[in-house]
Amino acid sequence: MGRRLGFWRRFAVSVVKPSVLALTRRDYRGMGHIPASGPAILAANHISHADPFALAQYVYDAGRWPQFLGKASLFKLPVVGPWIRAVGQIPVYRGTVDAAKALSAAEAALDRGEIVIFYPEGTVTRQPEHWPMRGKTGCARLALTTGAPVIPMAQWGPEKMFDPITKKVGLRLRNDVAIVAGPPVDLSRWKDSPLTTTVLQEVTDEIMYAIRDLLQDIRGGRAPELYTPQSKGGHA
Questions:
Q1: Name one GO cellular component term (predicted).
Q2: 9-18, 44-53, 205-214 — which one is most confidently predicted on average?
Q3: String of b and e for 71-86 (b: at least 16 CB within 10 Å)?
Q4: Cα torsion at 130, 132, 134, 135 (round to 10°)?
Q5: What does the alpha-carbon distance between residue 204 and residue 217 come to, in Å, rounded to a whole number?
Q6: Which residues of 194-204 are buried (b: 16+ CB within 10 A; e: fewer)?
């Protein structure tokens, strides 16, 4: 297993795993694409506030420790904040002078040979049918800076537990949840490219297209073009 568990991590597993097992009926695919060791960036769609738990279980079952970049506000919550910091999660200070600290912390984690989980969209999707939005460029910047492989991931089903668009909560047990990982995104054409806005957006779109195509496979239907919210563009 490419992970080390101390007290707090074991405690997190003892709390989260039974809940995920009770609330979900899991369809895991592509787990072999998660590297058994060494650094990797996992880039996933974000469809519900419940999906980090399902995704964390997938990554844990693949033999790695799930390490997310999460909103800094979560780290300020009583009890929860110190706990998620203790188990290695990384705060994102979006829109502040500390914004670069998240990428620095993620880069340090990759240097240690760890897994880092990114939601390139930066928030739960606002696309009305839960298809992916156009991503933000932090994941692309990290990939080009470190050379770590980007493993695209798609998930479908956690929105039944909590739908951020309708605000509907599903309290029943054994919700069907499908999660798939794909082969690393081929970013070779951008190797040694300057980190311009254009390059970063191209790489971001390439990552999001890989995620979108995986999602299309597991949920069915034809995916639309990447969604750009009208109120706040999708390029930050």
A1: plasma membrane
A2: 205-214
A3: ebeebeeeeebebbee
A4: 120
A5: 20
A6: eeeeebbbbbb
Cα 86 from Cα 93, distance rounded (Å): 18
* Angle, in degrees to the nearest 10, between helices 100-111 and 138-146: 40
Give the tens place of pLDDT for each residue, 188-199: 999 999 999 999
> Which of 47, 44, 87 has the alpha carbon at shortest distance from 67?
87
Question: Under DSSP, is residue 121 helix (H, G, I), strand (E, B) or coil?
Answer: coil
CA distance 188 to 136: 20
Distance CA 72, CA 88 (A): 13
pLDDT one-digit tens code per residue, 59-103: 999 999 999 987 777 777 776 677 677 777 887 776 655 667 788
DSSP 8-state assignment for residue 64 = B
Instruction: Determine the longest span between alpha carbons in the chain, in angstroms.
Output: 50
Contact between 91 and 75 (Cβ < 8 Å): yes
CATH number of 27-219: 3.40.1130.10
- Rounded to whole angstroms, the Cα distance separating 33 from 91 reads 26
Let me know: does 139 contact 43? Beta carbons within 8 Å: yes
Could you report how far apart the first and last alpha carbons of the chain are, in Å? 36
CA distance 200 to 138: 8
Residue 95, pLDDT score: 61
**pTM greater than 0.85:** yes
